[in-house]
Amino acid sequence: MTSTPNLAAGTPIWVDLTTPDVQASSRFYGSLFGWDAEDLGEEAGHYTMLRKGGKMVAAASPPMAPGTPSVWTTYIGTDDASATAAKVREAGGQVVMDAFDVMGAGRMAVFQDPAGAFISVWQPGQHKGAELYNQPGSFTWNELQTRDMAAAKRFYPAVFGWGVKDNAMGPMTYTEWQVDGRSIAGGMAMDPNIPAEVPPHWLVYFAVDDTDAAVKKVQELGGQVRMPAIDSPAGRFAIVSDPNGATFAVIKVGQQ
Q1: Count of Cβ atoms closer than 10 Å to residue 71 Cβ
Q2: For 9-37, how does the pLDDT look when each residue is reduced to its tens digit (9 = 90+)?
Q3: φ, ψ for residue 83, nearest 5 deg
Q4: How far apart are the C-alpha atoms of 6 and 50, rounded to whole Å?
Q5: Cα–Cα distances in Å, from 146 out to 66, 67, 76, 102?
Q6: Regarding the domain delimited by 12-124, which CATH topology (the fold level of the hierarchy) does it fall under?
Q7: How far apart are the first and last CA of the chain?
Q8: What CATH homologous superfamily does 139-252 map to?
Q9: DSSP label at residue 69
Q10: pLDDT for 221-236, tens place per residue?
Q11: Beta-ladder partners of 10
């Protein structure tokens, strides 16, 4: 467990939330995880930094276009966002937003993999990524849920240089994405019973001290339970959503 991000290229280093009501979302997550919010102002598009104990853990921002769903986004660290965009095109993905500067904070780009899951990259400038992770109230794992795992196993290694470690879990296979032999994220085929309108996506896991207590708190704050708490080899976790519909997972800290 660590509180200092590993900034190796190819590692998830940041997460942020797109929400139609940044203030309400900040209150929800503040109550759930103990986060403090700071609106960076009009110049920054009201990008709101979320901190735990003074350390940056995530952010929230209003949508760039009306009607954009409320979602959590995973950012993979890169040394060159433009070069990564070129690899995405070569590997059959779609460049949704080509690499651009975010003031002096860094450079970013937004992509979709061949199955349609959105993934972003961050080339650090002044903003290096999360200052706390794998601790209660910070992100601890990022997981691709897709309807085409075979395509994912071709795409992500080609773009990020990830290794693939498959694990048999009963009737299913769970994939660990690796950088230099270290597992940095996961991936799995979506359950066929999941409604077709739910797109392939990256799911963000936040560490908590008590999964069941966190689920109860989510409900008290107006959120919903998408998958009740269960035990897994990684720890006890649940999938929930905030009042605006953004889905995320909570997992007992220390298990990833």
Answers
A1: 20
A2: 899 999 999 999 999 999 999 999 999 99
A3: -65, -35
A4: 20
A5: 26, 23, 18, 29
A6: 2,3-Dihydroxybiphenyl 1,2-Dioxygenase; domain 1 (3.10.180)
A7: 8
A8: 2,3-Dihydroxybiphenyl 1,2-Dioxygenase, domain 1 (3.10.180.10)
A9: P
A10: 999 999 999 998 889 9
A11: none
